[in-house]
Amino acid sequence: MTKIVIAGALGRMGTTIARIVDESPGLELVGGVDIKEGTLLGTDVVTPDRIDELLQSRRPDVLIDFTVADAAVENIKAATRNGVALVVGTTGFSPEQRAVIEEAVVGTVPAVISSNYSVGVNIFWQLVRQAARMLADYDVEVTEAHHRYKKDAPSGTAKTILEILDQELGSREKVYGREGMSERKDEIGVHVIRGGDIVGDHSVLFAGNYECIEVSHRAYDRAVFAEGAVRAAAWVHGKEKRIHSMQDVLGI
Ligand SMILES: NC(=O)C1=CN([C@@H]2O[C@H](COP(=O)(O)OP(=O)(O)OC[C@H]3O[C@@H](n4cnc5c(N)ncnc54)[C@H](O)[C@@H]3O)[C@@H](O)[C@H]2O)C=CC1
Ligand SMILES: O=C(O)C1=N[C@H](C(=O)O)C[C@H](O)C1
After folding, report:
1. Are the C-beta atoms of residues 224 and 151 closer than 8 Å to each other?
2. Which residue among 22, 112, 122, 203 is least enclosed by CB atoms within 10 Å?
3. Nearest atom in ligand 1 to 92's CA
4. Which residues, 6+ apart, have CB-to-CB distance to 130 below 8 Å?
5. pTM of the model
6. Which segments constitute the Dihydrodipicolinate reductase N-terminal domain (predicted)?
7. Which region holds residue 18: left if phi is over 0, alpha if psi is between -120 and 50, else beta?
8. With a 6 A CB cut-off, is 93 part of the ligand 1 pocket?
9. What are phi and psi of 226, to 5 degrees?
């Protein structure tokens, strides 16, 4: 039985992940962490100041973190202090925070860290890479749309798209929205939409003369991210002590 603690247990992703863990044979939810204490599917949810106590008393195999960047860094450090494997879905890390996470994880615990746990997005990233390779002289525009409550922008998934484009096209300037006189140069436009309950849309437009190709992904339910994160949690326990990707989990 793989025992799991969820950080961000009472949030949109935390509650969805808890339900899927509860329905999964071989996985057991043994606790949660959130800024207010409570209960979730019969397990205790404790406040962040009690995370070490929780990890030591419940002895989980995996901590799944879907919180906010500052909180996730502290939760990741707590997991590494206690030898607990990690699945991190939180987005919005600064480059400095990424370096702190890498330093804490590598050689200490196995971790899967991904800006998007959906199988479809992991395939979509590969399609974007392939299109960029073949359409290097086309203009590129990235658009993402999410619900009104999303805190970080652009999304983690969009930032991963930009990393892929940089790898394939060289580092082009990023232009975040446009207003006024703005003649297009050799740049990548990045456009962020926030509204309602949009679960998560991403698209990459490759525009040439007389034609456009658009590669896009739309999530209809955040269960698609939660299922991927739970799959990563079942996979990560016992793996090499370094940062793995969701593509490693999927073997693609
Ligand atoms: N990688 C992926 O596939 C996905 C990533 N996300 C990311 O996951 C994160 C959470 O998203 P949502 O669940 O929609 O947000 P949310 O706001 O509904 O949930 C976050 C939860 O974390 C809690 N929290 C804050 N500080 C905490 C701390 N120190 N310790 C424990 N819990 C704490 C909040 O009280 C809240 O309940 C965001 O960064 C989002 O971008 C969301 C969906 C998919
Ligand atoms: O906050 C969200 O909701 C999502 N966040 C992730 C991101 O920032 O890319 C993944 C997904 O699009 C939903």
Report:
1. no
2. 22
3. 39
4. none
5. 0.98
6. 3-117
7. alpha
8. no
9. -65, -40
Instruction: Establish whether 150 is a catalytic residue.
Output: yes
Please work out whether the CB of residue 139 comes within 6 Å of at least one atom of ligand 1: no
146 is catalytic: yes
User: Is 147 annotated as contributing to ligand binding?
Assistant: yes
Q: Assign 226 a pLDDT band (cuts: 50, 70, 90).
A: very high
Mean pLDDT in residue range 142-155? 98
CA distance 179 to 225: 34
The token pair that represents 186 in the structure block: 């050799």
With 0-12 CB in 10 A as exposed, 13-18 as middle and 19+ as buried, what is 234? middle
Closest C-alpha among 72, 110, 71, 103 to residue 88: 72
**CATH tag, 2-117+223-250:** 3.40.50.720
Instruction: Write down the pLDDT at residue 251.
Output: 97
- For the chain, the average pLDDT equals 98
Q: 200 with 219: CB under 8 angstroms?
A: yes
160 is in an annotated binding site: no
Domain ranges across the chain = 2-117+223-250, 119-219
- Ligand 2 atom with the smallest distance to the CA of 151 is 1
Distance CA 238, CA 109 (A): 9
* pLDDT at residue 20 in the model: 98
Known binding residue 8? Answer is yes
Query: Taking Cα atoms as reference points, which of 146, 123, 127 lies closest to residue 135?
Result: 127
Ligand 1 within 6 A of CB of 71: yes
Nearest ligand atom owner, CA of 63: 1
Q: How far apart are alpha carbons 113 and 96 in whole angstroms?
A: 16
Q: Does domain 119-219 have CATH number 3.30.300.20?
A: no
- Do 2-117+223-250 and 119-219 come out as alike in CATH topology? no
